[in-house]
Structures are given as C-alpha cells and as structure tokens.
Amino acid sequence: MLALPRGGVPVAFEIARELNAPLDVFVVRKLDVPGHREYAMGAIASGGVRVIDDLAVHSLGIPSSVIDDVAAEELRELERREQLYRGRHLPLQIAGQIAIVVDDGMATGSSMRAAVMALRLHQPARIVVAVPVAPRQACEDLRAHVDELVCLTEPDSFIAVGQWYEDFRQIRDHDVYDVLAKASAALNPVNV
Predict the structure, then answer these.
(1) Which of 29, 64, 135, 188 could form a disulfide with 74 if both were Cys (CB 3.0 to 4.6 A apart)?
(2) pLDDT digits (tens, 9 = 90+) for 39-74
(3) Domain span at residue 116?
(4) Is 5 left (phi over 0), alpha (psi -120 to 50) or beta?
(5) Contact 116, 129 (CB under 8 A)
(6) Which spans in the chain are helix H?
(7) What would the pLDDT profile of 2-31 be if each residue is shown by its tens digit?
(8) CATH number assigned to the domain comprising residue 70
(9) Total structural domains within the chain
(10) In a domain, 94, yes or no
C-alpha cells in the first residue's frame, strides 16, 4: 500500500488495515502554476519522474525555465518529506508485487500520473490506483496507464477534492509520521 502524502496517508491507512498490508509513502509533488497554487502544470515523483500538462503550459505560455525553477523547488520539498516520513526505514520493495496507490482524491490526475510513471520503474506486478473521488475525465485519462482504477465517486461536476469531504483539514507532517508509525506498529508489534 503506497500513500501519496499528505492527504492520501489517512485514507491508505484504513485500506491497509483492512487488507493487513504494509503501508509506505510514495512522495509526489504537484508543480503549481506560479501565482495560482490551485492550478497544476504537472508533477514530479521519486525517481526523477516529471509529468507536464502540455495543454496547461501551452495555453498559459509558461516558459521551460519557469517549469524548471518550480520543479527544482518541489524536488527539495520531495526529498525533505521522504527523509522526514521514512526516517531510517527503507522504502517497501515493490518489484513483482501489487502496488496499490492511494490518495484522498484526484483533481487533474497529474500527481497520480507522475506516481504511476515512477512506480513503473520499480517493475511491480500490477498497479492499482484507489481514490475516493475524482472527476470522470481524470479517471478515464488515468485508466489507460494503470492495471486497475478504483474510484468510489466520479462526478461530472467537480470543483475540488475538498468539496467531497465533511472534514478536509490539512494533514501536517507530524500527522503523516504518526500514521506511518501506527501502521508499522500494527504490522510489526514485536518491533515497537
């Protein structure tokens, strides 16, 4: 079970607990359009993967130098989060395994596409994406890139992931760390 932090971690924890599966993070960072944090022009993921939304970049006239600057800044944050969340623990070995990738939802799917591309480098047996909510178009676009996509709600009218939650408070770094520690203790009670 691989969670996209931060919001995907509590969702993935519940699924991992039901499946009695190990839980780890797979860090992906959205590349925001400068000055418009809610709008993604792409994403990066562990392993040097970069996904660019060519339509957004072209329609907004964003130069490659701006994309490179944003990607460099987000790479620093990606590396910081990997170190913080995982500490001394090695990432889960996913070669030949079924990788279930979970987030709290998808808006454009850029972050999840980056995660899927990066995961392919690790040669899992299958990649399953699981999200509670995403717009129908984002699901259709992503289905071509994964072995299976599970999405509970695929509305045609979609503004933001948060609109589908009663409580969509920001998950903080320490919350992620605590959930991962709780998951590790549940699966390895002797090592606590």
Answers:
(1) 29
(2) 789 889 887 888 898 988 999 999 999 999 999 999
(3) 2-183
(4) beta
(5) yes
(6) 8-19, 54-60, 64-86, 110-120, 136-143, 173-187
(7) 999 999 999 999 999 999 999 999 999 989
(8) 3.40.50.2020
(9) 1
(10) yes
